[in-house]
Amino acid sequence: MHTLSNNVLGIKVASRGAELQSIYSKVTGIEYLWQAGPEWPKTSPVLFPIVGGLKNNTYQHEGKHYQLNRHGFAREMDFVLADQTENTLTFLLQSNPETLKLYPFPFNFRVKYTLHSNMLEVTFLVENTGNNTMFASVGAHPAFNVPLVNDTAYEDYLLVFNKAEQADRWPLSEEGLIAEKATPFLENTVSLPLKKELFAKDAIVFKSLQSTSITLVSNKTKHGIKMRFGGFPYMGIWAAKGANFVCIEPWCGIADGVEASGNLADKEGIHSIPSHGIFERSYSIELF
């Protein structure tokens, strides 16, 4: 386990999956991140080289078929701590014979955690170290404790968007694939009150929100978090059944649609990275 702190907050990150394990405020005395548990054994998985599931867990590239589980393999692999400074931790996963069997692209994938006072910035850097175009997606899956403080309940909290949203929800099939048609969900509103029934049919998936930040708040406490995610075109909101957390998931990728062709280059949300190019995205979590 690797730790990093300043005079305001501290984080813990595991080598396995470069997964954030703790975001603790020295000012509020609150642990903001879900601490795993029987409802869901993760805390904040890193999603790479795909986000979501593939149709039949299979994709095609240059005439060959490959198998990849939901959200890719990075969350189940050991990263190395490549660099540490006073305010940063940088983890590295490199392609190897094991990854190349699943995903035929040489790469360096870095996850960088940076502390800025009461804010944590998380940066994904995907470097194509091969000679051909690489196709990849990245995403985040952090789970935040709800309720955050004693004497509040799950239903006391809501998510607040920084712009009014007229946004449809894209349902997921039993196989975790995106349905052909969306259903109306947010009706010209900036808020989504939390209740556990919201997630009875898996995650709430949005495409192309107008907002670039979401704030978790309650009128019964002054404490919460604000996530900024400019540059991530997809968003998932999710919680395990009956669990006391909510995941706010900025994605640069999305699960296959039920009618997906299976061709990786044509996959919705996939990014083409030229030879020796770098794809970079960052999101941040502000604590209060």
Task: Write up what this structure looks like.
With 288 residues, the protein is mostly beta strands. The chain has one domain (2-261, 279-287): Distorted Sandwich (Beta-galactosidase, Chain A, domain 5), CATH 2.70.98. Helix content is 2%, strand content 47%. It contains 1 helix and 22 strands. The protein has one helix spanning 97-102; strands spanning 2-5, 9-13, 20-25, 46-47, 58-61, 64-67, 80-84, 88-94, 107-116, 119-128, 134-136, 138-140, 143-145, 157-169, 183-193, 204-207, 213-218, 221-228, 234-238, 245-252, 271-273, 278-287. The chain has a 9-stranded antiparallel beta sheet with strand order 7-8-9-10-22-18-17-14-15, with no helix packed on it. Strands 4, 12, 13, 16, 19 and 20 form a 6-stranded antiparallel beta sheet that branches. The protein has a 3-stranded antiparallel beta sheet with strand order 1-2-3, with no helix packed on it. A hairpin with a 6-residue loop joins strand 2 (9-13) and strand 3. The chain starts with a strand and ends with a strand.
